[in-house]
Specification:
It is an enzyme of class 2 (transferase). One of its GO terms (biological process) is methylation. The structure is a single chain. The chain starts with 5 loop residues before the first helix and ends with a helix. Helix 7 runs antiparallel to helix 8. The chain has ten helices and seven strands. It is of the alpha/beta class and 246 residues long. The chain has a single domain, classed as Vaccinia Virus protein VP39 (Rossmann fold). The longest helix is centred in the C-terminal third of the chain and has 21 residues. Strands 3-2-1-4-5-7-6 form a seven-stranded mixed beta sheet, sandwiched between helices. It is globular, with a radius of gyration of 17 Å.
Length: 246
Amino acid sequence: MTLLRDHDLARAFDHASHTYDGLTALNPGYRTGLLRSARRLALPADGAGLHLLDLGCGTGASTRALLRAAPRARITAVDASAGMLRRALVKPWPARVRFLHLTAEEFATTREDEGPFDAVFAAYLFRNVTDPDAVLRAVRQLLRPGGRFAAHEYSLSGSPGHRALWSAVCRGVVIPAGTLTGDRTLYRHLRRSVVAFDTAPEFAARLTRAGLTSVRVAPVAGWQTGIVHTFLARNGNPTTTEERVL
């Protein structure tokens, strides 16, 4: 099976949007993991005075995690799937949270005036984009100097055991559940996209090659340890003044 990309992937998410929250709720630790990754940004003062970007926000689960981690921040959330955004928009949000229907690439090239952002959060995004290096370059352009970056991503540790566990969970749970909802193609893509994507050390090295600094990798807890990781980085080294702000 060829991996879904661009508009084909967006259409698959559109179709799956009405059951997506229900299926992810069955995943132990799904929302807890997102919140932990958002909190690992370590944003000060509950995010007061900060403008944050949620890149690939889906139905808003990552946006909710970011809002809980920084409840006083202003948040711009972006996604390529109109269906997923419709699900996000029916949920209650404070006025300082807004949603835009754009791909990560489109946002970076058409909304430069939106930035610079104090932090960028990207959950389950990079293995789904056609050119992750181009998106990382765009992230650097969108981040202010010293700004913070966190990716919460399916990225296997490199251990054969973790790869085997991921395949077993997909074949035994994820793909059968997706088949019942009529979205088998999307969840087969999920399985293959994780296997085809960078291992955690490889993605960390990709961040460094993109020019991000202070790159760190932290596993999530629970059954997804070694399967999902938080990747943390900075856009260069902050000045003393910037460090006080962030």
